[in-house]
Each structure stands twice: as C-alpha cells, then as structure tokens.
C-alpha cells in the first residue's frame, strides 16, 4: 500500500535520504530503527509532504498512485497520518475546535457526512479512553501546557479520530515514562487493523514489546541497510548499531 | 466656515467658542483649553508621535453635530443592560437605557462641576486640549462605596452625515467614572458606525476611571467604525489601594486611530492588566501609546498588545513603564506581538522602561513575524487546507486576547467579528 522507490531527499541542499526503498503491505506494522541523524524523521516528513524537504529523485506511491504532487493536506485526506515526535503547541485554538475541523475536512474529502458537535464529543470521549486521556483537555488550547505524555497520547487520540489508512508514528515513545509508554503502545495496538498500515519509528525495543512489528528495518545514512522480523529490533537493543555499520562498510 | 485658512489648531480653537453651552462650569475649561490649543498647536515632530503623523488626523477641520440624528441602534452584545447611547457625540435618550438608582448622567447636565475631571488625564497634548475645548457630553458615573455594576455600555454611533461645513462631524466625549471604594464595574465602550456612512468623522474620546480602594474595573473598548473614520482616544486610570484596573482595547474598524492609555498605580497593592488586539487591513493605521506609572511599592502591571496586519496596514505600540524611586518590589511585564499577513504591512514596537530603583522586576518582549511554518504543517497534516490552517492559527492568536473577556456574550460577539474579519481579509 506504500512504496518508497529509490528515494532521494534533501533539506536546504543537504542530502538526507540517499536511495531509500521500502515496501509496506496493507495492515502490516513496520518498525524503523536507526541511530540519530540517520534520516528517520526526514522519512516521516517526506512521506507526509513537509514543504521544507525536496525530493531530488525516486518516488512515493500510496495505494497505487504517486503522491509526490500532493500537498500535505491532500495526503492527509487520503489517509496518511503522522504522529509527530514533537507535537506543536497552538495557543488560542482548543483541541476540540482543531480536531473537529480536521475530522470534518477529512470526512468531506472522503464523501462522508460531517459530524456535528454532539457526535464529535461522543466520538472524542470514546476514543480518548483508548489512551486514558482526560476529556477536559479537549477544551484546552492544543498541546499548550500539556505534559510530554499528554502530548504523545493526544497524537494517538487524533489518530483514533482520523482513522488513517497509513499511520506513521515518529518516536511515539520518546520522553515517556514506563506507564505512559504502556498506554501509548497499547493505544496503538488497539488501533492495529487489517485496514491500517503502521510505520513506527523508534529508538527502543521497549515500544515494540507492546506493539510487535511484522517487519523491522534499520535506517543508516539515508538508506535501509537491514530488514528482518521482530528479532532484528532485539538484536539492535542488545548490540547497538556498530555491527550494522561494520557489515555495511565491509 | 471662518478660519479655514488658519492652522487647524487656531481653526478648532475659534470654533470651540461657538459651541452651545452646557452647564456653566464647562465654559472656563473650554476656553482655557482653546487658548492652550492655540498657543501650543498639535503635535508635529514629537517623539511620542514618531510613527503616526498627527497631520493625518487634521486634514480637515471637523465641526460638532448640533443634535443627535434619529438612527436605529445596531445589534450588539448589550442586551438589556444599562447603556448610554451617543449619536455623533450627542446623547440619545431614546436609545439609552438607564437603571434605577444609578448615579449616571450626561456631563452637560452635571451641575456645579465634576471634581474628578482631569484627575486621570492631565493637560496632555493638542488633541487632549481639543477634547477639553469641545467639552460638552460624556457619561459621568459615580458608584458609591460598596456598589457593583455588572455592565455599563457606552455606545457611540457615528452616522457619517455631513456637517454644514461639508465635512463629517467632530465627536468629542469625556467620560468620567468614579468608584468610591469596594466597588466593581464592567465598562464597555463601543464605537460604531451606522449603516450608509458617507463622510469621514473625527472622534476624540477621553475616558477617565478613578478607582477608590478595593475596587475592580474591567474595561473593554471596542473600535468598530467605518474604515474612513479618524479616532483619537485617551484612557486614564488612577488605581486606589488594593484595586485593579483591567483594560482590553479592541480595534476592528477605523481608518486611523491613536489611542493613549495612562495608568497611575499610586496606592498600595494596586494592579493593572492592559491588553489590546487590532485586526487591520487595507491602509488602516492604529497606534497604542501606553504609559504605566508605578509610584508605590509592590504594584503589578501587565501588558499584552497584539495586532494582526494584512495589506498595507500598520500598527504601532509604545509601552512605557515608569517606576518611581519609592516603588520597590514593582513587577511589570510588557509584550507586543504582531502577526504580519502581508509583506507590505508594518509593525513598530517601542518598549520603554524608566526605573528609579533597584528592587524591581520588569520584563518586555516583542515578537513580530508571520505564521509559524511548523504549526501550519501540523494543521495541514491533519487534513486542513492551507487557508483553513492559516485562519485557525490567526484566530487562535486573536482569541488569546478575546476569549478571556467576560461576559461570554461580549467575548463571543468579538470572536465572531474577528472570524468574520479573518474570512474577509
């Protein structure tokens, strides 16, 4: 359902992705691991159409069509969702106001009827429970003054509301304590379905203990250099990345 | 009219002599102010008028209206609450709504003088003299000790009709609100234009608020006039012991406005919170000139002035905080934020601190720029169009000032007006 074909991308003239190829099947969960600055967050932003990144060659196909010419909102409406590593704070805009606008923009694009305020609230309460989020956060400005854990849970809550076909989770575990990690991971696990593909970017095995991937890939210097099953993540956890670097260099 | 070839100060000074009389005690104030105006003139290359040309307010000599035209009151957030309505600067009893037992009257009918007049606003510059030279109408409210008034609306309606001189009208107003102590007041000033305005007018409105001890005034001033109108506003507050004066100045519609705010914290435990929001487009120009004087220990003042600027509009903010020698433990903050929606819009900001002792905490900051690109991407990633994302971020910026206003009806009214503005800009 998602194909990345020999993707090269740069930001302000600096190449980050250098020939990345990857294929994700429908309903699969793929984990991407890699050292800092290997291009993991860039990959997430390139797939979702961040305007700062320029694709110099290669392609991205989503459900059989190229999405390179589409803006971020068009990709989002096709069902591509990014859980941000650093969710943005937006003072003065309540979580509810923002998310209702997002849900309805998405529904309109899919030819579904818009939700009204009451239906939105009912859905929101139901889906906030997935990540044990306090419903009072709906009234607060988006992410403003939220703890690190609340911000990450809010991302997963938004994913639950927007029901994407492809969810890219950029380090959903960073900065979380053990309990918050369990809540976020089990929220993701609950949203796993044959209709939904997930690309999980993480540094740590511990997230994958709760959200077992079908495939694991190692990203190094802008390319996928190793792919395997869940055991590859365990190997990285045990041995770090140096052995991968050595093997790639050899 | 005679004197058109004289300088505007002289022309206004001589015109003021022809003003029909109110109470006798007003006359010497007017003539003294007219003489002052004539001798000093209007500000020209004054430092305080660095970014706003006083001459742009003086391109015509406007004359006062003789009587209030019969117009309909537009819809607004006043409901059944007490209100005084002024049409082209003249009280309109038919549209006003009093409340029994309230000591509220028009300046022209106050007999024997108003001792508080001038206490919160001093001699000032030429525009201040102009206000006193045409002193005639305005609300005079006295809240005796312990009294509360949950809302008073002062509604100014400009018809834009033509004065005999061929220009629009000069509206001068002087409101004086006195809380004797242990009182509360929510004061709303609305400056509106009637439908079908044909001519520019000049409003010169001064509001003085005198707070006795342990009182709280929340003052919201809304400028939502025709885009040709010219406006000079002066707001002065003297804050008593344990009292608090809060002001929000909202500017939606005006051609050119200069609004001076002066707050004197001269008694123990006095505090003020001043904020502003200007939503500007076209060639609108709005200048907020704020001075807070801390003259006693432990005073607190906060300022948060914002503007959203489209097209070739311009906002100016000067925030002066003066901390006198004895005012130890003063805490003050100032913030000016301008959101530029166009490359041709301009925001000028000048924080100004004058501190005469060591034990103070004064902060100031300014942020002038366009919308945050990361925030735009975040919203677009959630499916919002770029236009919708820009609108949501801009309305969020504005609603940080508006949503904290009470009552809800006023906040909602302004949020709605702001959204309409954003939709149209």
CATH architecture label name of chain A: 3-Layer(aba) Sandwich
CATH topology call of chain A: Rossmann fold
Q: In sequence order, what are the helices and strands of chain A, one letter per element?
A: EEEHEEHEEHHEHEHEHEEHH
The average pLDDT of chain A is: 95
N-end to C-end Cα span of chain B: 40 Å
How many helices of chain A in DSSP terms? 9
List the chains of the largest interface with their residue counts.
Answer: A-B, 30 and 25 residues
Strand content of chain A: 25-35%
Rg estimate of chain B, integer Å: 21 Å
Order of SSEs of chain B, N→C? Answer: HHEEEEHEEEEEEEEEEEEEEEEHHH
Largest sheet of chain B: 10 strands, mixed
What would the average pLDDT of chain B be, to the nearest integer?
A: 92
Topology, element by element:
The complex is a heterodimer of chains A (250) and B (425).
Chain A: E1 2-11, E2 14-24, E3 29-33, H1 40-48, E4 53-62, E5 65-66, H2 72-78, E6 80-83, E7 90-94, H3 95-109, H4 117-128, E8 141-142, H5 148-162, E9 166-170, H6 178-190, E10 197-201, H7 205-210, E11 215-220, E12 223-228, H8 230-239, H9 242-249
Parallel strand pairs in A: 3-10, 3-11, 6-9, 9-10
Antiparallel strand pairs in A: 1-2, 1-4, 4-5, 7-8, 11-12
Chain B: H1 8-17, H2 26-40, E1 63-64, E2 83-87, E3 90-91, E4 103-106, H3 126-133, E5 139-143, E6 148-158, E7 169-179, E8 184-193, E9 202-211, E10 216-224, E11 230-239, E12 244-253, E13 256-265, E14 271-280, E15 285-294, E16 300-309, E17 314-323, E18 330-340, E19 346-355, E20 360-369, H4 373-381, H5 386-402, H6 408-424
Parallel strand pairs in B: 1-7, 2-6, 5-7, 6-8, 7-9, 8-10, 9-11, 10-12, 11-13, 12-14, 13-15, 14-16, 15-17, 16-18, 17-19, 18-20
Antiparallel strand pairs in B: 2-3, 4-5
Helix pairs in contact in B: 1-2, 2-3, 4-5, 5-6
Structural account:
- The complex is a heterodimer of chains A (250) and B (425).
- With 250 residues, chain A is α/β, with parallel strands linked by helices.
- Chain A has a single domain, classed as 3-Layer(aba) Sandwich (Rossmann fold), CATH 3.40.50.300.
- Helix content of chain A is 38%, strand content 28%.
- Chain A is globular and about 60 Å long.
- The two termini of chain A are 33 Å apart.
- In chain A, 43% of the residues are buried.
- The model of chain A has no long low-confidence stretch (mean pLDDT 95).
- Chain B is α/β, with parallel strands linked by helices.
- Chain B has two domains: 8-265, no CATH class; 372-425, no CATH class.
- In chain B, 18% of the residues lie in helices and 40% in strands.
- In chain B, the strands form two sheets. In chain B, strands 1, 4, 5, 7, 9, 11, 13, 15, 17 and 19 form a ten-stranded mixed β-sheet that branches. A ten-stranded mixed β-sheet of chain B has the order 3-2-6-8-10-12-14-16-18-20, with helices on one face.
- In chain B, helix 2 (26-40) packs antiparallel against helix 3 and helix 5 packs antiparallel against helix 6.
- Mean pLDDT of chain B is 92; it is low at 1-5.
- Chains A and B meet through helix 2, strand 7 and helix 3 of A and helix 4 and helix 5 of B.
């Amino acid at each position: 359902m998602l194909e990345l074909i020999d993707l090269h991308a740069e930001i302000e003239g600096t190449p980050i992705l250098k020939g990345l190829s990857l294929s994700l099947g429908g309903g699969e969960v793929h984990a991407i691991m890699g050292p800092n600055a290997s291009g993991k967050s860039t990959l997430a932003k390139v797939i979702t159409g961040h305007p700062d990144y320029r694709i110099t060659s290669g392609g991205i196909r989503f459900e059989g069509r190229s999405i390179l010419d589409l803006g971020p909102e068009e990709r989002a409406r096709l069902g591509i969702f990014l859980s941000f590593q650093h969710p943005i704070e937006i003072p003065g805009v309540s979580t509810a106001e923002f998310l209702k606008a997002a849900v309805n923009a998405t529904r309109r694009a899919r030819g579904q009827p818009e939700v009204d305020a009451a239906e939105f609230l009912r859905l929101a309460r139901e889906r906030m429970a997935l990540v044990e989020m306090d419903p009072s956060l709906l009234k607060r400005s988006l992410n403003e003054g939220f703890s690190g854990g609340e911000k990450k849970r809010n991302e997963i809550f938004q994913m639950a509301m927007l029901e994407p076909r492809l969810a890219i989770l950029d380090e959903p575990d960073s900065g979380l304590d053990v309990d918050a990690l369990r809540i976020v991971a089990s929220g993701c696990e609950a949203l796993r379905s044959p209709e939904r593909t997930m690309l999980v970017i993480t540094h740590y095995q511990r997230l994958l203990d709760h959200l077992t991937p079908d495939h694991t890939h190692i990203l190094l210097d802008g390319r996928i250099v190793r792919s395997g099953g869940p055991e590859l993540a365990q190997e990285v956890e045990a041995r770090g990345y140096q052995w991968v670097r050595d093997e790639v260099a050899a | 009219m005679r004197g058109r070839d004289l300088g505007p100060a002289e022309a206004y000074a001589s015109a003021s002599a022809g003003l029909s009389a109110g109470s006798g005690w007003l006359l010497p104030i007017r003539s003294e102010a007219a003489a002052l105006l004539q001798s000093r003139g209007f500000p020209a290359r004054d430092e305080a008028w660095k970014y706003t040309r006083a001459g742009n307010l003086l391109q015509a000599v406007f004359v006062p209206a003789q009587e209030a035209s019969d117009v309909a009151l537009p819809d607004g957030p006043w409901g059944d609450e007490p209100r005084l309505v002024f049409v082209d600067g003249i009280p309109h009893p038919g549209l006003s709504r009093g409340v029994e037992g309230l000591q509220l009257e028009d300046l022209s009918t106050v007999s024997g003088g108003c001792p508080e007049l001038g206490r919160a606003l001093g001699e000032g510059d030429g525009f201040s003299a102009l206000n006193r030279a045409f002193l005639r109408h305005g609300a005079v409210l006295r809240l005796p000790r312990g009294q509360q008034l949950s809302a008073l609306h002062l509604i100014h309606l400009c018809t834009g009709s033509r004065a005999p001189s061929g220009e629009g009208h000069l509206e001068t107003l002087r409101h004086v609100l006195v809380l004797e102590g242990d009182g509360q007041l929510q004061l709303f000033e609305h400056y509106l234009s009637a439908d079908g305005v044909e001519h520019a007018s000049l409003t010169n409105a001064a509001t003085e608020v005198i707070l006795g001890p342990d009182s709280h005034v929340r003052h919201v001033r809304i400028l939502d006039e025709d885009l040709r109108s010219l406006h000079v506003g002066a707001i002065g507050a003297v804050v008593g012991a344990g009292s608090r004066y809060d002001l929000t100045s909202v500017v939606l519609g005006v051609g050119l406005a200069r609004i001076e705010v002066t707050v004197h914290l001269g008694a123990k435990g006095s505090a003020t919170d001043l904020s502003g929001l200007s939503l500007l487009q076209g060639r609108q120009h709005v200048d907020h000139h704020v001075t807070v004087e801390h003259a006693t220990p432990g005073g607190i003042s906060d300022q948060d002035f914002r503007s959203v600027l489209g097209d070739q509009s311009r906002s100016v903010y000067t925030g002066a905080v003066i901390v006198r020698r004895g005012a130890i433990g003063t805490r003050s903050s100032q913030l000016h934020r301008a959101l530029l929606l166009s490359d041709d819009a301009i925001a000028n900001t000048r924080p100004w601190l004058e501190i005469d002792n060591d034990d103070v905490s004064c902060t100031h900051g300014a942020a002038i720029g366009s919308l945050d690109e990361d925030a735009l991407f975040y919203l677009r990633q959630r499916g919002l169009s770029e236009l919708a994302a820009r609108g949501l971020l801009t309305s969020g910026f504005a609603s940080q000032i508006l949503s904290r206003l009470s009552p809800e009806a006023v906040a909602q009214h302004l949020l709605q007006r702001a959204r309409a503005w954003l939709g149209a800009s």
